[in-house]
Specification:
Layout: H1 2-29, E1 32-35, H2 38-47, E2 52-55, E3 59-60, E4 74-79, E5 83-85, E6 90-94, E7 97-101, E8 109-111, E9 114-118, E10 121-126, E11 131-135, E12 140-144, E13 146-151, E14 156-160, E15 166-169, E16 171-176, E17 181-185, E18 189-192, E19 195-198, E20 204-206, E21 210-213, E22 216-218, E23 225-227, E24 230-232, H3 238-241, E25 243-246, H4 251-255, E26 258-264, E27 273-282, E28 292-300, E29 313-320, E30 327-332, E31 336-341, E32 350-356, E33 364-365, E34 373-374, E35 378-382, E36 388-397, E37 403-404, E38 408-412, H5 453-456, H6 485-488, H7 490-494, E39 501-502, E40 506-510, H8 511-520, E41 524-529, E42 532-537, H9 538-543, E43 551-560, E44 563-570, E45 573-575, E46 577-586, E47 599-602, E48 608-610, E49 612-614, E50 619-626, E51 628-633, H10 639-647, H11 650-678
Parallel strand pairs: 1-2, 2-4, 3-5, 4-7, 5-8, 6-9, 7-10, 8-11, 9-12, 10-13, 11-14, 13-16, 14-17, 15-18, 16-19, 17-20, 18-21, 19-22, 21-23, 25-29
Antiparallel strand pairs: 24-26, 26-27, 27-28, 28-29, 30-31, 31-35, 32-33, 32-36, 34-35, 36-37, 36-38, 39-40, 40-43, 41-42, 42-46, 43-44, 44-45, 44-51, 46-50, 47-48, 47-51, 49-50
Length: 679
């Protein structure tokens, strides 16, 4: 009996010890996946972004289905295997994805069809005579901001078989090792905005013609045609007119904005290039939930290796009131100016557009100029003089969108692509352009084209009784056909007793304005301060049933880099419980942070909500169900934990199993021996 008890105790101890190791092993192994077909690779990337994936066989990509874009950096270990793309098929990859393998048995990618790589796709081949990408005779390779690395003697980044002229755009190819080469081509090449390097003698090995269009090649390639370019501001006049967004737009939508830089060459008969890019936004002063004009700095999202400098932009950002007309932009046409409205003007009784050639001293109706016209979408103005700066203003009577618009500046004349002159092609005299911020003439027009946020919305604690107006509106030109004030802006007059405001931490809006926001945002309304935004369901805000004179007050105060306070007050009554609301805040993980384990903690109740993190925009997001103070909790992965996770405890498990087998065998032998002795 004692022996049986001893045996059972030992088995229980063994199970207990094993269980101590299994969770760590399971956790480490949970993010490890294997695949051997195109369908398996697609499914893993779709359901487990950010995981580590290993190929167990060559993959033939006999489909045109693109790989899903992953939300977190994902590594694919290819080992000695390859991905083969047959002719008439295409593989489209969006990063951040990193493929790594040996590339010695065969290239990591064999392209007889088409391979397209965008947004931080990296391919790395390591080993003697390794090749990362092989382009067959009819193969095609497209790349945008993607990289190819090879490391090893006699290695090749990209190999082109003989074939027709190929163009490679915005790619980085780097080769390390004796005898290594970045690109080995047996066909004519045109490299555009590429960075090709090799630590040995040749970055590009070819006997065919090569055109280097604003490329950085190290070592330099002899006998190549070289074109040098410089960048100019994107979207001509963008710094003059700015960007427009509807009130309540989400920050994520704003960040999708892409602009095209012009890359120009001073040589004759060389066409300009256009490069489209997204930006990193410095927009902490922009309140997307309150109408106004703000300033933001935009930095192009291009890597350090990009071979041309794209300058950052400081531009006005217009947040447009949904109930007021707004002039979005003016465009230079052949012999006229096209003006675009931000919103279609429906059901309007009267629409008038005025122009001023003397900085607002006098105004005239554009319809006085022969050929000019106006409709509900915009206007076209003929008869303007070149080398002349103009101001435009719109008045609307009747319909859901009415009142007086912003004042839009425009200089008639072609812009100088090299930045000099006066926006007229560089062949006319210099002239003084109106300043960015102007004093408002008494009884005459314009608000300044750009009003700094601190001028329109003074910081909390400052004296608001100065001469600076809370909002800036253009006066109506004297002698023009102007509707009465009560018919232009009944909304403002009706709500004159409601104190709407936007400070560093508070947004206060009337019930009437809230209803306007609910009309254009049927799902949720966004409120934002200091980069922290909260989206509250429209159905909940509608259920508050505020009158036109009611007041909704949202407080969003940043207390430190990881914490903030949220309060919601409706007509003076504080709201504690919320339906499912979404909150986002700027966040950069500390070193060693596992951002897959981030949590947003409510300071008062201690409740936790999981956090999703966008590495691209450095934003952490979570769902919340109550107001109060919140803090972002990080989880640090120590070096010891990393080592244990990487090892997966396999040696320890094997040792436990072997030791258990030996002990069990000894117990069985000992028991049989006792039984024989008894007999």
């Amino acid at each position: 009996m004692k022996r049986r008890t001893l045996f059972l105790v030992w088995v229980l101890c063994w199970l207990l010890v094993s269980c101590c190791f299994f969770p760590a092993s399971a956790q480490a192994a949970s993010s490890q996946y294997e695949c051997s077909t195109a369908e398996e690779l697609h499914q893993i990337l779709l359901t487990h972004p950010g995981s580590a994936i290993s190929l167990t066989d060559d993959i033939i990509w006999d489909t045109c289905t693109p790989l899903p874009q992953v939300s977190a950096p994902t590594k694919i270990n290819m080992g000695d295997f390859s991905i083969l793309i047959p002719e008439d098929y295409e593989l489209y990859i969006q990063g951040p994805v990193h493929f790594e393998g040996s590339g010695t048995v065969r290239p990591l990618f064999v392209v007889e069809g088409s391979l397209s790589m965008e947004q931080q796709v990296e391919i790395t081949a390591r080993g003697n005579s390794a090749t990362a990408i092989f382009i067959g005779e009819n193969g095609y390779w497209y790349s945008d901001l993607s990289s190819v690395f090879v490391d090893g003697p006699n290695s090749t980044g990209v190999y082109f078989e003989s074939g027709p002229l190929s163009e490679v755009t915005a790619s980085r190819v780097q080769a390390e090792g004796n005898g290594s080469v970045g690109i080995d081509s047996h066909r004519p090449l045109q490299l555009v905005l590429c960075n090709i390097s090799s630590e040995d003698r040749q970055a590009v090995n070819t006997s065919e013609p090569v055109r280097l269009d604003q490329c950085l090649v190290t070592p330099a390639l002899q006998d190549a045609e070289v074109i040098s370019r410089s960048s100019v501001m994107p979207e001509e006049r963008i710094q003059e007119r700015g960007l427009c967004f509807p009130q309540g737009v989400s920050r994520e939508e704003v960040y999708k904005t892409a602009l095209s830089y012009r890359l120009v060459c001073r040589e004759e008969d060389v066409y300009d290039l256009s490069y489209l890019t997204e930006f990193l936004w410095e927009d902490s002063l922009v309140d997307y939930s309150f109408p106004g004009t703000y300033l933001a700095t935009l930095t192009p999202q291009v890597p350090d290796w990009f071979p041309v400098v794209l300058p950052s932009l400081e531009i006005p950002v217009h947040i447009v009131d949904p109930g007021r007309p707004f002039l979005r932009a003016a465009y230079q046409l052949t012999d006229s100016v096209g003006i675009q409205f931000f919103t279609e003007l429906t059901e309007a009784a009267e629409i008038h557009m005025y122009y001023s050639a003397d900085n607002g001293t006098s105004w005239n109706d554009i319809l006085e100029l022969p050929g000019s016209y106006i409709d509900c979408y915009g206007a076209q103005v003929y008869g303007l003089n070149e080398d002349q700066s103009y101001l435009f203003c719109l008045t609307v009577t009747g319909g859901p969108i009415e009142g007086i618009s912003n004042v839009l500046p425009f200089t008639f004349g072609e812009p100088d692509p090299f930045g000099g002159g006066d926006n007229d092609g560089g062949d006319r005299t210099e002239q003084e352009l109106p300043p960015v911020s102007q004093d408002i003439p008494e009884m005459t027009v314009p608000s300044p084209p750009v009003t700094p946020p601190q001028a329109v919305y003074p910081p909390e604690g400052t004296d608001n009784t100065s001469d600076t107006p809370d909002s800036v509106e253009p006066s109506v030109p004297a002698g023009t056909k102007t509707p009465p004030a009560e018919s232009i802006s009944p909304k403002e007059e009706k709500n004159s007793q409601v104190k709407e405001e936007s400070t560093d931490s508070i947004t206060a809006i009337s019930g009437a304005r809230l209803r306007q926001l609910l009309e254009i945002n049927p799902n949720s309304v966004l409120f934002e301060k200091n980069g922290i935004s909260v989206e509250i369901p429209s159905s909940f805000l509608s259920s508050l049933a505020l009158s036109d004179e009611g007041l909704l007050e949202i407080l969003l105060r940043k207390t430190d880099d990881f914490s903030f306070q949220l309060s919601v007050t409706a007509d003076g009554k504080e709201i504690v419980t919320l339906p499912e609301a979404s909150v986002s805040l700027p966040y950069t993980p500390s070193q060693g942070t596992d951002y897959s384990l981030l949590a947003l903690v409510h300071v008062g109740t201690g409740s936790e909500e999981p956090v999703t993190y966008s590495d691209k925009h450095r934003i952490a997001s979570a769902k919340i169900y109550e107001t109060g103070s919140f803090t972002l909790r990080e989880y640090y992965v120590t070096e010891t934990e990393k080592a244990v996770s990487a090892a997966i405890n396999l040696p320890v498990l094997l040792f436990v199993f072997l030791l258990s087998a030996v002990v069990i065998a000894l117990l069985i032998l000992f028991r049989r021996r006792k039984m024989h002795e008894t007999l």
